[in-house]
Amino acid sequence: MASTGDGRTRRGRSAKAPLSRQAILDAAKELVRDHGVDALTLRQVADRVETGPASLYAYFANRDVLLEHLLDAAYGEVELVEIAGDGWKKALAATIGNTIDALGHYPGLGAVALGTIPTLPGALRLAEHELTLMEAGGVPDDRAALAVDLIAQFAASTAIERAVRHEDPRGAVQRGRVRAAYQEADPDRFPRVTRSAALLTGPGEDARRAFAIDLIVNGIEHSD
Predict the structure, then answer these.
(1) pLDDT, position 202
(2) Residues of 116-141 as b/e, b for ≥16 C-beta within 10 angstroms?
């Protein structure tokens, strides 16, 4: 059907945007944001871009490849924090937090990250930035390399935990049950657990994340 030149067909309908790798990826991102990784299918993506599933294979060999590129797109969205007056550790800590947030925008993507060795540009951009920050802090190359791997695992697992907690409306109730179980444990066998029941179950997500990031960042430069 011929176009009128203003993006509409002669029958008045909007012309379909041409199929492209980016259009497919954008559709997948929207679907995962709305429904999570587990619900994503190639048929859903194809419907979103108004084509058949077979057309997607010219751009992505299968669902796993599409998810790999979706993960890399999320890494590409991470805001990289540069070194300021408060030093490289603060910049690295903030970048780690931003990585968790970027993965968290796509429920379930953290699990993909744990099962993938990233080699695409978004992940390499993030690794390069982390290595640059640690180099500025005088961290030896071998420790910096191990730290990049640890940071990736931590960000992915934290994103998974966040998704699970947010999907479970019983979270507060379950925390209350855990605290009660700790408090009611045998004080002769578990004196420290019973004494610290509120401390073990009280800190929220932000406090726990900040504590873990602080341990990671401050532990990077210390050798045995």
Answers:
(1) 84
(2) bebeeebbeebbebbbbbbeebebee
